[in-house]
Amino acid sequence: MNEYFHLYLEIACLLIALIYSPHLKKNKGFIYFLPFLIVTVGVELIAKFGMTNTNVSRSTRFMLFNVFTACEFVFYSAIFLLHLGNKTLKKIIRILIPVYLLLVTLNIMFVQGTNSFHTYTFLLGSFFMVVYSCFFLYESILPDSINIKLSLQPFFWICIGLLIFYLGSVIINALFEYLTSASMREQGAKIYTTITNSLNVILYGSFSIAFILCRNNRKTSSSPS
User: Fold this and answer.
1) How far apart are CA 93 and CA 73, in angstroms?
2) pLDDT digit string, tens, across residues 130-175
3) Dist. CA 6–CA 45, nearest whole Å
4) Cα(224)–Cα(221) distance, rounded to whole angstroms?
5) Is residue 108 included in any domain, yes or no?
């Protein structure tokens, strides 16, 4: 599969967000996906084309993605804060955001170092995303929250995309060392690339569906509890 495949998906998703931007403004928090996707595409472009020079250190490349993915988890957490109804969970998320950033910093500085990807804290962030997604889906099926079909709610698709993407990421990154071992190097790299590309299709495909559904201006947040 083309090495730029996920970049094409991100650009396509960004274009759809731009097309439906007037409608994104009418749905809680969705307009923030525009700058987020611009940054996402920008980071990928810098990594692909701006860091091809051999003078760019390995640690610089990893630091770019370490910082971006940490900020990515913060962004998604903030979006969940806008759409979750449970006040206790929202308080927990507000506490977890700075705690998570601290853990990422400590992991990069003292555990995994600047010369590698922060897999430990990435897996932790992925776990948080799965929990938040499951909780939103639980709130969405409560009697007081059922006013329209879930499939017509834009944030439902955001949630589904994040749930599948990060659940898959937990599994594939847990197997990363095995897939890149000497005995599995060639075949493992193909498996890893195929799965990650498939997960990206689901993630950005779900985002795109959500942006298109925003034209209906449906309420997407759960009832407070």
Assistant:
1) 11
2) 999 999 999 888 766 656 788 889 999 999 999 999 999 888 877 7
3) 11
4) 9
5) yes
Distance CA(96)–CA(129), nearest Å, equals 12
**Closest CA relative to residue 14, chosen from 29, 33, 31, 28:** 33
In a domain, 9, yes or no: yes
pLDDT per position as a tens digit, 57-113? 677 888 999 999 999 999 999 999 999 999 999 999 999 999 999 999 999 999 998
C-alpha dist (Å) from residue 191 to 38, 187, 207, 215: 29, 6, 24, 38
In this structure, what token pair is assigned to residue 119?
Answer: 């897999």
- The count of structural domains within the chain is 1
Give the number of other CB atoms < 10 A from CB of residue 113.
12
Are the CB atoms for 133 and 163 separated by under 8 Å?
yes
| 8 A C-beta contact, residue 28 and residue 220 | yes
Whole domain around residue 44: which residue ranges?
Answer: 5-216
- Burial class, 36, CB count within 10 angstroms (exposed 0-12 / middle 13-18 / buried 19+): middle
Q: What is the DSSP letter of 20?
A: T
How is residue 86 written in tokens?
A: 């449970």
**Placement of tokens 């969940």 in the chain:** 80
Instruction: Give domain status of residue 222, yes or no.
Output: no
Question: Residue 225 falls within a domain, yes or no?
Answer: no
Which residues, 6+ apart, have CB-to-CB distance to 142 below 8 Å? 222, 223, 225
